Amino acid sequence: MTKPIKVIYLNSSTPPHIITLVSLAGMSALSMNIFLPSLPGMTAYFDTSYAIMNLSISMYLAVTAVLQLFIGPISDRVGRRPVVLISFSIFFIATIGCLVSTSIEIFLFFRMLQAFIVTGMVLSRAIVRDIVENEKAASMIGYVTMGMAIVPMFAPAIGGFLNDLFGWKANFSMLLIIGVVIAIFAFFDLGETNKNIAQGFSKQFKEYPELFKSKRFWAYCFTTVFASGSFFAFIGGAPFVSTNSFELSSSTFGIYFGVTTLGYVMGSFISGKFSEKFGIHFMLLQGSWITSLGLILSLILFWLGLGSATSFFGCMILAGIGNGMVLPNANAGLLSVRPSLAGSASGIGGAIMLGGGAFFAYLAGLISTHEAGPYPLIYLMIFTAISALLIVKYIIFLERRIGN
After folding, report:
1. CB atoms closer than 10 angstroms to residue 249
2. What is the count of structural domains for the chain?
3. How far is 101 from 106, CA to CA, in rounded Å?
């Protein structure tokens, strides 16, 4: 099947440039990460508990998961471009709402609306699958997610310094400004790539059983759930552990957190460079092993009395490398099961992943205590990583024995 490959930057009649795809996906990650160093201060500002404040992460992920059930099908029906632009408009309103919130309830309401920005992450993957084939898609998604990871790599560090200098609202002001800039570029560059517009939602839903009956689809989905579970658990528990176990300042935590994303950048680069050559299953298996071994090393260091903030965050770099190898290839795999439903598969797969992420982020916040230190968080991350490894082995078994 011939697909359009000509790209002219800032020309909305051609497919979007990879810079635009990276920006769209990166905005979603930026919205998640930039305010993490502010969580302790925001807890005091809204006069609430850390568990309640942590809902700004877990509830955000949960709403994001639900939205992805609709984003994909809607974009399959009306196109990728209008869904992206409308979602950005909602995000702008929500961000302003966060800035003027006077209570935790009002803040959490607008924070949930901010989840509409996930459209950029969902549809950037679907757009890639619109214009290139399976193994090439894994490679291109690897580059997109590598670029996406570069943005939030610096975001927590910047967010920590902004918080120390001006308070938590500075982070949301920056989100608003950057979002407007990206939306302007998307308006001029984001050409429609969905050339097979679905005839109607009823027809799409009738085709869902074809997608759902695929064991490979579910296996790829749950690979993303558990592979990303270590990262979402880290997001949910790391701010608490950093403050209570390592006594880090907001800016220092932001630097440490930003450094850990170097691993994901490296893993995504490896995916972009080698997925097409070695295949997605090889990359899935090797990445799962690297994540598991990195987290087990962290635990061993604490058992030996050598644990510290440096070892804790340093081992997360290894886990990030593994995740950067696993997630682009798992996403390419679930999108390839039924290419005609790429948008729906991306949305459903993303919803399942982030639904699991919301659970692991909430659980991490729930089990983290001052007395236990970092151990509960490390145990949880090891559990998710090993679970992902086992599912990857099951995928390989399916490919060898029963195919679809």
Report:
1. 15
2. 1
3. 6
- For 102, phi then psi, to 5°, come to -115, -5
Examine residue 3 and state whether it is found in any structural domain, yes or no: no
**Could you tell me what percent of the chain has a pLDDT over 70?**
86
pLDDT tens sequence across 166-185: 989 999 999 999 999 999 98
Q: Are 148 and 29 in contact (CB under 8 A)?
A: yes
Whether residue 370 is contained in a domain is answered as yes
Ramachandran quadrant class, 62 (left: phi over 0; alpha: psi -120 to 50; beta: rest) = alpha
Burial (CB count <10 Å: 0-12, 13-18, 19+), residue 298: buried
Mean pLDDT for the stretch of residues 126-154: 68
In a domain, 287, yes or no: yes
> Does residue 1 lie in a domain region?
no
Q: Domain containing 180 — which CATH number?
A: 1.20.1250.20
Sign of CA dihedral 244, 250, 254, 256: negative
Q: What does the alpha-carbon distance between residue 144 and residue 150 come to, in Å, rounded to a whole number? A: 10
pLDDT digit string (tens) for 232-290? 899 888 888 888 888 888 888 888 888 888 888 888 788 877 877 788 888 999 999 99
User: pLDDT tens across 121-137, in order?
Assistant: 878 877 877 776 655 66
Give the residue from 230, 220, 225, 276 showing the smallest Cα distance to 394.
Answer: 220
Q: Does the structure show a pLDDT above 50 at 2?
A: no
Find the length of the chain. 404
Beta-carbon contacts of residue 395 (< 8 Å; ≥ 6 apart): 216, 219, 220, 223, 281, 284, 333
8 Å CB contact between 89 and 136: no
Task: State which residues form the domain around 88.
Answer: 18-188+200-401
Contact 348, 205 (CB under 8 A): no
HSE-up (13 A, CA, CB side) for residue 319: 33
Phi first, then psi: give them for residue 379, nearest 5 degrees: -60, -40
